[in-house]
Amino acid sequence: MSLPLLTLLMLVPVAFGAAVLSLPRAAGRGVARLALAGHGAVVLLTLGVLGRFDATSGGLQMVERHVWVPSLGVDYFLGLDGLGLVCVLLAAFVPLMAFGFSGRVAARREGLYHALLLFLQGGLMGTFTALNFFHWFLFWELGLVPAYLLVRLFGGPKAGPASFQFFVYTMVGSVTLLLGFLALHAAGGSFDFIELAEFGKSGRLAKALADKLPWAGVFASGDALAVTVFLGVLLGFAVKVPLWPFHTWLPATYSEAPSPVTMVLTGVMSKMGVYGLLRIAMPIFPDQFRVCQGALVLLALATVVLPTFAAFAQTDLKRVLAYSSVNHLGYCVLGIFILAPGATGPAWLEGAAAPALNGVVLQMLNHGLTSATLFGCVELLEGRLESVRTLGRYGGLRAAVPVLTGLMGISFFASVGLPGLNGFVGEFLIFKGVFASAPWAAAVASIGLLVTGVFLLTAMQKLFHGPLNAGESVVPDLNTRERWMVGVPVALMFVLGIYPDLVLRLINPTLMRLAGSH
Amino acid sequence: MISTASYFWMIPLLPLFAAGLSAVLPRTARRASAALAIGSMGLAFVLSVSAFIGTLAGHGSEHGARSVVNFDWFHLGTGVVRLGVLLDPLAAVMLVMVSFVGLLIFIFSVGYMEHDANGGRFFCFLSLFAAAMLGLTISNSLILLFACWEGMGVASYLLIGFWFHKPAAAAAAKKAFVVTRIGDIGLFLGLLWLYGEAGSLLLFDAGRGCLEPGALALVTTTKVGSSLTAAAGIGLLLFVGAVGKSGQLPLHVWLPDAMEGPTPVSALIHAATMVAAGVFLVARVFPLMAGGDGVTVGSGTSGVLQVIAWVGASTAVFAALIAVGQNDIKRILAYSTVSQLGYMFLGLATGGVAVGMFHLITHAFFKALLFLGSGSVIHGCHEEQDIRRMGGLRRWMPVTFAAYAVGMMALAGVPLVFSGFWSKDEILHSAWLWEPSRWPFVMGVLGAFLTAFYMTRQVAEVFFGEYRGATGRVAHAAADKGHRQKSHHPVQAAHGDGVHESPWVMTGPLILLGVFAVLLGVIGTPAWPWFEAYLGGHEAVFDLGRLSHAAPVMIVSAVVVAAGMGLGWMLYGKRPRTSPESPDVLEPVLGGFHRALARRLYVDELYDVTVVAGHRLLSRLANWMDLLFIGGVVVLVGWVSNAAAYVMRWADELFVNAGFDAGCGTVGWLGRRVSKLQGGRARGYLAGMALGVVALGAWVLWGMNVG
């Protein structure tokens, strides 16, 4: 019997986190070393997973299944397909990246910081591999706690209100999600995502809900009840992504969190929402989704367009990037919502579903890479000039830090969606799918493409261009270690932009399966 | 096709490689960067010429002389998305032009950027630009074309903003990127539409490409609404992209500002090569634009072609008018470029691919010549760009003057000898024969008059009369501009003494370009229309009789050019201005209109109060909406939850305090930890949440059991 890699993925970071926490304060550099070993171990395990992954199958692999609570239909059920793999890759590498940028932030309480980061990683891994609601929800919630504490304890001056808001929003979403699943369990008798999806596809959900729930009479019909349950589940994901108008926690949290933590929040945690939509909400509720599709597409378009305008109005660089994140994930949500539920036929599959879904998952990876790199660059800038985030406070930094400017500039352009860099292919594919489904929606969303260029270039202009003050000319450029820390992700942006097949061939079979069962 | 011609796919990769390598070279390695750039471009030129010769050899075969190489890019669905490159006469002629003119720019830059500390990066960006332009030229896939198109946008951004410490340059760079991106969005949507309709974005793919009869028949017959065909909709969207890139109305505003880049070089990119990409795009997808019938030249009365003709003609006149009122030597040329690009579109729309492309090629040479000439002038005058502060330069810069005069006459369209005459005449001729309307022809003639006029004015102001640049002032102005480039020539006090001829690396390319600005006309005269025949894939026949056919329009155009030059000389040459401050001779005559011309007809101001202000307003609104959410709804929720937490806490104390803490050790630890920070608020909240969840969950489960 081979190693239960997926279980290890989740346990190893938690174990290392506990070990880091138990080190005495006097351990000094040992704390960071042990944490790095933890992240390294996770990366090694992930490489193992990648090696064992069969790209051609498209189905669930490396499945681990054990009976857990038989009376409630709860199994310990882990598995991975192309979608999960992309998320696991992000969950493995982004925290490692964040670790690299953590030196300044963690200095306050090294042990606690690194332990929390590792706990967070464990929670993320669990979320992306669990296939039973009970177990999945546990990690979904457990991930929230270390994230909250990282923001609260290591964040900026307004971290208190920001983290509180983050917690309230996500918690409300989680509660409705939980209630929705309890209702589903009542109706379908299972917590198993796969079984629930079969059940949802069969069209019996509304009736079962109406029959099994004693308080169903409150609702006008079984359909209305089912839609309510769907919206409850959806809210949990919508807050996490976030979908407009549930996004207002995000700019505050991303900007108040220490930048390395923001890297994990935006690089990985935001993907939990998109993952949930693809894995859970869409397959289980096709009929209910059909009822709400029009409104949801409008919300997705609002998520794409409005934050770009809001970003333009920001004066804090991190808030600009935060809004940019909302916009980028908006494309993901749009790509999911635009697909007509129940549609079939090769023209639809090849022309709309395959590009849109592949684009969405590729965009998840690309956004994780690009936004994490950008926030990493912010950390490097902040380490050099404390109030650098206030746009307009400094200018002309390109003369002082040309290498940082170059690398961050490339990341900016990746974020703008420049061909040749990673962002383009995902966005192109999403737009292809959206255009094939509803040309007007693609036209509206393209406003987002345009305005993203405007505000990112404006930010770049304010930071790097113009005359340099004499006092800033002594700011040092990147040292060798920092060059590697930013240079490697930037190189990866080129690789993924030029040869996206590296990822697409891993995810395409999975997404074709998903589209086929849509 | 065999031999070196089959390596044409390497042509864009060479400068790309040079760009990549010099990007990682240390910044001080400027010589290595320059050598890499020039070497790769030289090799690209050699390969381009051999590819060109290859297309000559392939003449007369079934597919003309087209060779296509397609390759897999990535898996999608059950299929594969492919990219490809192609070599046909249209691509070959662009390859030769771009690599040759590009090579000359690179060489010229060695002299021009000699004193720039960041010179190494400059060659890196130039190479990146060249790679993108050459890649675009041979793209057989609209995705690849779009990628190169955007790559050029970035290279252009980097080059315009090369002197990034100048706020004006940084702003101009951003403006160029954003304004062209408006067009790019149109192009992008057009691509998506075409992709959906044709199922492929490969241009030629053994019958399955989107420019091949099968797909063309489909898109030209698919109706959207009552009258618009898919081809028309797609064509218009693609043209929006061309409008942005080629600086046509109403997206022309970025191009004059782009002159903030290093003088001759970046300016040249924005005159000879990159801006021609829009024209090239229309030429490339011409069958689509023409509504399926791309073979017969001059059959263009499709809706898209009509739009293109009107936009081109309007831009030609509009920009030429503004050029009359400008005083910056580069801005005059920039508006001239906008105007000439308008001619190219007019030519494409009324006369077909060969007419528009011929002007593109001749214009590339003489506009390159003019821009490099202006660079030489500016270099010689210590970074002075205002023509009112020049004068009499022909005495100190004879080579530059001679070359510039050739360029000016080619642009103005002086009959018979200069290439510009022949290419512009072709356009006017087709506009004359255009069925839908004669007005574009009239506008073209008016534009030709204005072109002759403003170019004569410019040459008279710069090269004739007395030198008006106060040297002390010049030095001051140069310092003002903050150029890193420090003049290596001591500024002398005597009249014009500080002015000097440029070194041979700068004048050499001028002379070469001058020769071509004259000679190129030969290949496109009505008597021997070799260029058209070459693009069309048939043999050129020499026939003097066709000259007489074209004679009426040629005579009109010659008269108009003579009138424009004569008037220009009368106003500016005979009585040259004596001081920089004295008003333009047209000012008293035209009054307010001249002021409007000088202010570029207030287009930028108009955009400022509409588009820019609207964007700002929307941004404030979006931001305000978010703040309202935080300030309103969320605070309300906060109050409510606080109140709830208060109640819960009270319940906590009374009923479950001990049990809760003992049972949930971790949560308790967490709660205490948080409570220290949150003053109890979050603790109560967390506890409330947990209790609420448990209670509700129990309720549902209970209901389930009962049910």
In words, what does this structure look like?
The complex is a heterodimer of chains A (518) and B (707). Chain A has 21 helices and two strands. Chain A has helices at 5-22, 29-52, 82-100, 103-106, 110-129, 133-154, 159-188, 193-201, 205-212, 222-240, 249-256, 259-284, 286-312, 317-337, 346-384, 397-400, 402-416, 422-437, 439-464, 480-498, 501-516, and strands spanning 61-69, 74-80. In chain A, strands 1-2 form a two-stranded antiparallel ribbon. The mean pLDDT of chain A is 89. The termini of chain B are far apart. In chain B, helix 25 (603-663) packs across helix 27 (681-706). Chain B has helices at residues 10-24, 30-57, 89-112, 119-138, 142-160, 167-198, 213-221, 230-245, 254-257, 263-273, 276-284, 286-289, 303-324, 329-351, 353-380, 398-412, 419-433, 439-463, 471-481, 504-519, 530-536, 545-573, 586-590, 592-598, 603-663, 665-678, 681-706; strands at residues 67-76, 79-87, 223-224, 228-229. Helix content of chain B is 70%, strand content 3%. Chain B has a two-stranded antiparallel ribbon. Chain B has a two-stranded antiparallel ribbon with strand order 3-4.
Structure summary:
The complex is a heterodimer of chains A (518) and B (707). Chain A is built from 21 helices and two strands. Chain A is mainly α.
What topology emerges from the helices and strands here?
The complex is a heterodimer of chains A (518) and B (707).
Chain A: H1 5-22, H2 29-52, E1 61-69, E2 74-80, H3 82-100, H4 103-106, H5 110-129, H6 133-154, H7 159-188, H8 193-201, H9 205-212, H10 222-240, H11 249-256, H12 259-284, H13 286-312, H14 317-337, H15 346-384, H16 397-400, H17 402-416, H18 422-437, H19 439-464, H20 480-498, H21 501-516
Antiparallel strand pairs in A: 1-2
Helix pairs in contact in A: 1-2, 1-5, 2-3, 2-5, 3-5, 3-12, 3-15, 3-21, 5-6, 5-12, 6-7, 6-12, 7-9, 7-10, 7-11, 8-12, 9-10, 10-12, 10-13, 11-12, 11-14, 12-14, 12-15, 13-14, 13-19, 14-15, 14-18, 14-19, 15-17, 15-18, 15-20, 15-21, 17-19, 17-20, 18-19, 18-20
Chain B: H1 10-24, H2 30-57, E1 67-76, E2 79-87, H3 89-112, H4 119-138, H5 142-160, H6 167-198, H7 213-221, E3 223-224, E4 228-229, H8 230-245, H9 254-257, H10 263-273, H11 276-284, H12 286-289, H13 303-324, H14 329-351, H15 353-380, H16 398-412, H17 419-433, H18 439-463, H19 471-481, H20 504-519, H21 530-536, H22 545-573, H23 586-590, H24 592-598, H25 603-663, H26 665-678, H27 681-706
Helix pairs in contact in B: 1-2, 1-4, 2-3, 2-4, 3-4, 3-10, 3-15, 3-20, 4-5, 5-6, 6-8, 8-11, 8-13, 10-14, 10-15, 11-14, 11-15, 13-14, 13-18, 14-15, 14-17, 14-18, 15-16, 15-17, 15-20, 15-21, 16-18, 16-20, 17-18, 17-22, 18-22, 25-27, 26-27
